[in-house]
Design goal:
The protein is α/β, with parallel strands linked by helices and 327 residues long. 46% of the residues are buried. It is built from 13 helices and 9 strands. A 5-stranded parallel β-sheet has the order 7-6-5-8-9. A 4-stranded parallel β-sheet has the order 2-1-3-4, sandwiched between helices.
């Protein structure tokens, strides 16, 4: 695998072999870190992180990974950059590209990170946009491979709103790598038909199947992985909670649903999660709508079938692999 100098903006820009190569590299770098083997292969380089949407896991993963690779890191929070406000995206890219060896962007439209990449002159990495979340998918797949030993043929079910970055990226990733993908939600929450068509083309090549189901009991039959995300995404207005709770409550991941999946089924979540009232929003919305949890119950989230924290750790190892390979 040689992807030096390439951007990492969406999975569709890569081949299945390249995605597999990044997962294998991440596993190797993880092993080295656990064994205390130094891998400062990019000593003296510097990267900048542009966060128009804040994050715990993405920021920490990029910062720790960069330092493990020997690099310096500059973090720009939503108030720390003039991108798109006083300075155009193209101008920002050309300035930062002359100062840094790589640029990460986490924010809004995919067009923004694509424009950064077009003008930066250095690798640009997508830490999340409204449409795609490609670093998360690498972490998810590394976690699945660690747990089951393989990816191809895994029955993967995504419960809930599949119209945005997570549903889109998981569907494409599964289609590329041969996992059987099911989106389970009311039909209005399925991914864009044009993207489904592209995923179907990829699935034909990998042998994967794509299913779109509105009955949770049918969807989880023989499922090896049940995955969900919060019902109201970052940046969406709080007013839509009532609609989402009404329409997505039947798709909550609970013990009864997990028991209908395969005996070896695991639960995954990209985090953060509203599985209890220990967050401000979780408490506010839980009390307002009379719920003790939202997209997943606390018993599943904290239970023996949950591998969410292994998944969260793997964000760092897979992000490190992306930076190591592209710089």
């Amino acid at each position: 695998m040689n992807i030096k100098g390439r951007h990492y903006l969406k999975l569709l820009d890569f081949t299945p072999d390249e995605i597999g190569g990044l997962i294998d590299l991440a596993a190797d770098l993880k092993k080295q870190k656990k064994m205390g083997i130094s891998h400062r292969m990019h000593e003296g380089k510097n990267i900048v992180l542009i966060f128009e949407k804040t994050s715990t896991r993405t920021r920490c993963a990029f910062e720790v990974a960069a330092r493990d690779l020997g690099m310096g890191v500059t973090y720009l929070d939503p108030s720390g950059s003039q991108i798109g406000k006083k300075e155009s995206i193209a101008d920002t890219a050309r300035v930062l590209g002359r100062m840094y060896d790589g640029i990460e962007y986490r924010g809004y439209g995919q067009a923004i990170v694509e424009e950064l990449a077009a003008h930066a002159g250095v690798p640009v990495w997508n830490g999340l946009t409204d449409e795609f979340h490609p670093t998360q998918i690498l972490a998810d797949f590394l976690t699945i491979k660690e747990h089951f030993g393989y990816l191809k043929g895994i029955n993967f079910v995504y419960m809930g709103d599949a119209r945005f970055n997570m549903g889109n990226s998981l569907m494409i990733g599964c289609a590329m790598m041969g996992l059987n993908f099911t989106a389970c939600a009311p039909a209005k929450y399925f991914p864009d038909p044009a993207l489904i068509e592209k995923a179907q083309e990829l699935a034909k090549q990998s042998g994967a199947t794509l299913t779109f189901e509105s009955d949770p009991d049918k969807a989880v039959q023989n499922a090896n992985v049940i995955y969900t995300d919060i019902w109201v995404s970052m940046g969406e207005p709080v007013e839509i909670w009532e609609e989402r709770i009404r329409e997505l409550s039947p798709y909550q991941v609970n013990d009864q649903l997990m028991d209908k999946a395969a005996d070896n089924a695991v639960f995954m979540h990209c985090l953060p999660s509203y599985h209890d009232h220990k967050t401000t929003i979780g408490k506010e919305m839980g009390e307002k709508f009379g719920r003790d949890s939202m997209e997943v119950t606390d018993s599943v989230f904290e239970g023996p079938r949950s591998i969410v924290f292994e998944e969260a750790e793997n964000r760092m190892h897979t992000i490190k692999a992306v930076m190591a390979a592209t710089l």
